[in-house]
Amino acid sequence: MKQQLGHPEVVNALIDAMDLNDDKAIPFREYMAICLYSEPYGYYRNENPKIGKQGDFYTSSFIGSVMGEMIAAFITKQAASASSEQGVLHLVEWGGGSGRMALHIMEEIKNTSPALYDRVRYTLIESSAYHRELQRTALQDHAANITFAQAEEWLAQEPREQLYVLANELLDAFPVHRIRYKNSDFQESYVHWRHEEQEFQEFWRPIRSERLLDFLAQSKVQWLDGQIGEINLEAETWIAGIASRMESGSVLVIDYGDVEAELYAPHRYQGTFMCYRQHQAHDNPWIHQGEQDMTAHIDFSFIEKVALQSGFADVTLQTQREFLVEQGILQKLQDHFDPNPFSEVSKRNRAIRQLLLSDHMSELFKVFIATKKR
């Protein structure tokens, strides 16, 4: 069956990248990066809806305002326990999409801790111009507290105290290396364009990257012959960059994933890579280029190791359910029967139950917290 190719400009960008190489091929990681981030038609660069009924998936920020309220509760507690209760409190959200999460956090801090709200400077790091405009619109009531920055610009600034960085479903969108263990050796996925068939095809070759080989050398996984997995080296760079900017504070990563032993277990023989389009999940990256999300689960064992090596003193990994309960979500449930399913009380209670119970997502999603103290 002929492949259903995606946006012509993204397909052409992929072919052009392959034509630059003598073997007319690129690593899967580069293929994924172009599909997601090429300007202006890559998946995360185009203006098509991504989240909600008209999009391809839902996020926790789309399910009411409760997740934002719980993150605000966490930040408020952290700020209260800090040695200094003066000066600016820096909140930084990386890849904030439409700005819904930022709005919910700022509204909650303003309502529950006005004095803290006056100290907050909320920076949004968003590479998409389209999403920056959505954020400006969503946060116009908090404009005095909001700033925008590019990643390189922000990372180059001096380290700060009282810095809290939020990444909600960010790291899973980083391009990954796709690897395979075959005949007692590791291979990496490459992609080339078959002109006659008008389709992309995957093939495997020995790993060349020293970083990948170092990662695998330190891994304790017992790979099965033919087993496929994904390695997210950009997450290492990201965590290390955050650590270099932080003198005191925390980084909060919310994403789906697991520890190494689970992520590369035999029942994950085909890896965790998935695509999402119009709320349908599948594992075929060779179609709908630029028109579908591509993602892989996060290796939180790797994230924890990098965080400790980068200078974070305390790290915690818990399920989303555990985090929400710890921050007081059960107190948000209202013990009130309302026959109207569309009332605010009914909608809020449904949102809370959905975050805690639906489709085991609250167990699949993890919350990773790494903290620095002076």
Describe the fold and architecture.
36% of the residues lie in helices and 24% in strands. The strands form 3 sheets. Strands 2, 3, 4, 5, 10, 14, 15 and 16 form an 8-stranded mixed beta sheet that branches. The mean pLDDT is 89. Strand 3, helix 6 and strand 4 (146-149) form a beta-alpha-beta unit. It is built from 14 helices and 16 strands. It has 374 residues and is α/β, with parallel strands linked by helices. Helix 3 (66-81) crosses helix 4 (100-112) and helix 9 packs parallel to helix 11 (300-309).
Topology:
Blueprint lengths: L7 H12 L5 E3 H10 L28 H16 L7 E6 L5 H13 L1 H6 E6 L3 H10 L7 E4 L1 H5 L7 E6 L8 E6 L2 E10 L4 E8 L3 H9 L9 E4 L1 H13 L3 E10 L1 H4 L10 E4 L2 E3 L10 E3 L2 E2 H10 L4 E6 H7 L17 H14 L3 H4 E8 L2
Helix pairs in contact: 3-4, 9-11
**Strand fraction:** 15-25%
Q: What is the CA–CA distance across the termini?
A: 60 Å
In one word, what is the shape? globular
* Helix percent band: 25-40%
Q: Give the H and E element order.
A: HEHHEHHEHEHEEEEHEHEHEEEEHEHHHE
DSSP summary: helix tally? 14
- Mean pLDDT figure: 89
Radius of gyration based on Cα positions: 21 Å
Count of distinct strands: 16
What are the segments in which pLDDT stays under 50 over at least 5 consecutive residues?
none
